[in-house]
Amino acid sequence: MIFFRHPLPPVLICALLWGSAFPVIKTVYHQWDAQGLTRTLPLILLFAGIRFSIAGTGLLLVGKNLRQELKAASWKGLLLLALTQTFIQYLFFYQAVAISSASLAALLVATGSFWWMLLAPLFLKSPWPNTRQWLGLILGGTGVTLAVYAPGINTGNPILGALFMLSATASGALAVITFQKLKTTISSKNATGFSLLLGGIGLILVGAPALDQLSEMFSPIVIFATLWLCLVSAAAFSIWNHLSTLFPVTLLASYRFLIPIAGVIEALIFLPNERPGWGLVIGGALVILSMIWAQKTSSSHT
Fold this sequence. Notes:
The protein is mainly α.
């Protein structure tokens, strides 16, 4: 397909989809606050689990050769994908968005690229970052530190939120690495559907203590938000996993700077109570510059 000849157009679509998740999830939390619902961990994870279970089921229903591919694929690998891509990643992700600002959480998605640069050599035997790339990592780390130090108003607990998001992006990086070992036996659509469904069920089980609040959780606004988030999960993960079969992981990592940009912009546009602090602005600029630096460095060595 012409759409996939270059990674930029599909990555931009993924960025806009994933970026929209931050203000949408935060809107759900605000809705619960207005209803007097306490944002307990089971409540948050039940919401996440329902979202991913619906998205995964939808993908599997439209997938092709599901039975044959599941037989051919490594079940250990599929379980690991579900664990890293969905369960662990979003166990931390939803908590990060709950206790910090959506704009800070969106910016910290950029750390996924840094994790890839560090983990890919260990698991995929790709080259270690060179001197210029290490400098880029240091620059990006400085940017993250500044963003967490002065993120702006209504930021909750930025330090703990940052730790949660770092854990989430590390798990996401491991998920992409895991899929590299599965892509010869199962399509990105089926693998993503299986991962979302199984991981979603796991999140529902952890969030089961909040099942008695199910009817209160899903107001019309939350139902609409859930359906949108299901679309985001199904579409963005499918596109991204398919891209990982066409382009090197390191190249895709360098384009991930579009995701935090989209997330921060969409959060600031749609969440009027969030205002960025100087640390978020300067730190965000440093993070983006470090990722562009890494992209140019990677391109010059391919």
